[in-house]
Amino acid sequence: MADDALFEFLHMEMVAHVYKQQASRAETEQERTTSVSILEGMGFRVGQGLIERITKDTPGFKDDLDIMKFICKDFWINLFRKQIDNLRTNHQGTYVLQDNRFSLLTQFSNGKQYMEEAPKYLAFSCGLVRGALCNLGLDSVVTAEVSTMPSCKFQVVIQKA
Amino acid sequence: MADDALFEFLHMEMVAHVYKQQASRAETEQERTTSVSILEGMGFRVGQGLIERITKDTPGFKDDLDIMKFICKDFWINLFRKQIDNLRTNHQGTYVLQDNRFSLLTQFSNGKQYMEEAPKYLAFSCGLVRGALCNLGLDSVVTAEVSTMPSCKFQVVIQKA
């Protein structure tokens, strides 16, 4: 329990640090893009490292859907101690992963007032997913959105080579 | 197991980021001081948050030594899944906490070649200890040294008011 807290608190600090550092440099809109991409990049590399450990003893995957199911279950449990609650796909390379209680958002109150802040706290996790998929051979674009805290949806669009 | 990896990988990324960002700004010696203090400050705030959760149901402590024992045992197990291996004190406010296999150093090879890098990876943890002690009412100065990887010693000097 409190073990997760170590990661969660560090994540909070990191987000705060990256935003503060960028704020001292640039203007609002551009600044936000850069901070998001710094955090996304960190997540990407962490995701690459983690998936390597997690799939060490896993046999191959039969298709993209099989990979996505692995991300929703094994990968997510490993990181956030719960599975993705809902996975949907259009069978054309777009997947929507819904987590009804995303651990990095549970510290926020449920109201609307922190909604604007939410993307800050999702960038790292988008990177985690993209990094993991990349190491499994899938190029993707991963974005996230929050409609009601602490629930959120990750949209994964696989880029065909 | 891989849960810890999430924290460990994020910690690595954070150290790399802070150093890279500072490197693009200042000169070597000063840069190192700043990076260390940024990381130490992050650890401090994380330590404050964590100790609050961990001591929620703990009765009061009878003296400084009692607090230090709690840090070595409960606090350390909570963060790093093992206790401090050895605690020594001069009974005048100085404590030396030795961890023979410190989790944030286990990724390094045992040789001497990474010794210079070690302080980077200890700053956050020094802050963790200082933050925890601060919330328990003790002002302290915490430093760390490595003689053989992955073993390390934290020196805590309590500042009398």
TrEMBL record, chains A, B:
GO terms for biological process: endoplasmic reticulum to Golgi vesicle-mediated transport; nervous system development. It is found in: Endoplasmic reticulum; Golgi apparatus, cis-Golgi network. InterPro entries: NO_sig/Golgi_transp_ligand-bd (IPR024096), TRAPP_component (IPR007194), TRAPPC6/Trs33 (IPR037992). Keywords: Endoplasmic reticulum, Golgi apparatus, Neurogenesis. It holds the Pfam family TRAPP. Coiled coil: none annotated. GO terms for cellular component: cis-Golgi network; endoplasmic reticulum; trans-Golgi network; TRAPP complex. Component of a transport protein particle (TRAPP) complex that may function in specific stages of inter-organelle traffic. Specifically involved in the early development of neural circuitry, likely by controlling the frequency and amplitude of intracellular calcium transients implicated in the regulation of neuron differentiation and survival. Belongs to the TRAPP small subunits family. BET3 subfamily. PANTHER family: TRAFFICKING PROTEIN PARTICLE COMPLEX 6B-LIKE (PTHR12817:SF7), TRAFFICKING PROTEIN PARTICLE COMPLEX SUBUNIT 6B (PTHR12817). This is Trafficking protein particle complex subunit 6B. It comes from Aldrovandia affinis.
